[in-house]
Specification:
The chain has 250 residues and is of the alpha/beta class. It has eleven helices and eleven strands.
């Protein structure tokens, strides 16, 4: 295994998350960190009606990006209950002003399962209208599953993640020179976008010397389409677990 100083890591996250990940890797003395955002977050707040948020009895949040988009505007009523996917999302909700979430789950599938199994959570949810505040593209069809359970829940998109149409010249040169040792992938859309751009450049062969480090099994499955040196999956869908999979040495 390479030590931190000999690693060259490509980060594919949108900004500002990409900078935050880069900062953590630099603190760990990773030799080279390259940021290439493959998704750009586009706010959809102009299409949002404040009454939609105020009329909800509670909210479901499945991404930290919701709070990056809603940092200003006062659309959410923080006095209402919420459920969150991921500890970082839960912390962002509390930073916004919400109390302790009714439920915090690792992923959307787990959230849906726990709601179905825990009457203490399900009981307050069947009493009113809930809003799944997220991006245009979501995993797990949270609102659809909850509706089938008799819960009045609707998906409301406040942002769209727009895929990159090209790689920067500097990143392509790094790929071409095979300096990059690891590429971090946090979502299926990111790995799909990356593979599409690589194929359009006829550059799939450059991946043979690189390791894809993936946040979840679903992301890893998408990565298997490329001729990677290795595909590694984080044990849990957290950045801490992803760094452990990357092999960051404390």
């Amino acid at each position: 295994m390479l030590n931190n100083a000999h690693m060259s890591v490509l980060i594919t996250r949108p900004q500002p998350a990409g900078d935050e990940t880069a900062s953590q890797l630099k603190k760990a003395s990773v030799g080279e960190v390259i940021i290439e955002p493959l998704l750009t977050i586009k706010s959809l707040l102009k299409k949002s009606d404040k009454t939609t948020f105020q009329a909800a009895n509670g909210y479901i949040f499945s991404s930290v990006r919701v709070f990056e988009v809603l940092a200003v505007g006062g659309l959410l009523d923080a006095s209402k209950p919420c459920l969150c996917v991921g500890k970082k999302t839960a912390q962002a909700a509390r930073d916004y002003g919400f109390g302790i979430p009714l439920l915090v789950a690792e992923n959307s599938e787990t959230l849906i399962r726990h709601i179905g199994d825990d009457r203490r959570v399900q009981k307050p949810m069947v009493m009113g209208r809930w809003l799944h505040v997220a991006g245009v593209h979501t995993r797990g069809d949270v609102s659809g599953h909850l509706q089938s359970m008799g819960i009045d829940c609707h998906h409301h998109a406040v942002y769209e993640a727009v895929s990159a149409q090209s790689l920067s010249a500097s990143t392509f040169e790094s790929l071409k020179s095979q300096k990059i040792t690891h590429v971090l992938f946090y979502s299926e859309r990111t790995i799909t976008t990356f593979m599409s751009l690589i194929e359009s450049l006829s550059a799939s062969g450059y991946l043979k010397s690189m390791t894809a480090v993936c946040l979840s099994p679903a992301v890893a499955d998408a990565a298997q389409k490329g001729p990677w040196k290795e595909v590694i999956t984080a044990a849990k869908a957290t950045e801490e677990s992803l760094f452990k999979a990357l092999g960051i040495k404390e």
